C-alpha cells in the first residue's frame, strides 16, 4: 500500500449554526492546519498515488481566505470539513482538520 500525506495551511472564516449558545455562532476565523492522507494499492502511470498539487488545488484553492459558510452547503464544522475533504480528494482515506492546537477533527474512510 502506498501512502502520501499533504499538509495545508488555510486561513478562513466561518460561523456555526448551533442549537445552543456559543461564541462560535458569530463570524470568526482560524488558521487551519489540514492533513490529507491518500492511499492506493498501485501507482498511476506517473508513479504517484495522487499529485500533491491536485490535493492543494482541490482543498486549498477552494477554502483559503474564504467565508466557509458561503462556499459550503453544510454547517462548516471541522468534522464536516474533514468529511468533505475525504469525499472530494481522490484516494483520500483520512483528513485531519485543526482549528487550533488543541482542537482537531478527524474523518477516516
From TrEMBL:
PANTHER family: 6-PYRUVOYL TETRAHYDROBIOPTERIN SYNTHASE, PYRUVOYL TETRAHYDROBIOPTERIN SYNTHASE. Pathway: Purine metabolism; 7-cyano-7-deazaguanine biosynthesis. The active site is at 24 (proton acceptor), 65 (charge relay system), 99 (charge relay system). One of its GO terms (molecular function) is metal ion binding. SUPFAM superfamilies: Tetrahydrobiopterin biosynthesis enzymes-like. Its cofactor is Zn(2+). Its EC number is 4.1.2.50. The lineage of its organism: Bacteria, Bacillati, Bacillota, Negativicutes, Veillonellales. Belongs to the PTPS family. QueD subfamily. Keywords: Lyase, Metal-binding, Zinc. Binds 1 zinc ion per subunit. It catalyses: 7,8-dihydroneopterin 3'-triphosphate + H2O = 6-carboxy-5,6,7,8-tetrahydropterin + triphosphate + acetaldehyde + 2 H(+). Pfam families: PTPS. This is 6-carboxy-5,6,7,8-tetrahydropterin synthase. Zn(2+) binds at residues 14, 28, 30. It comes from Megasphaera lornae.
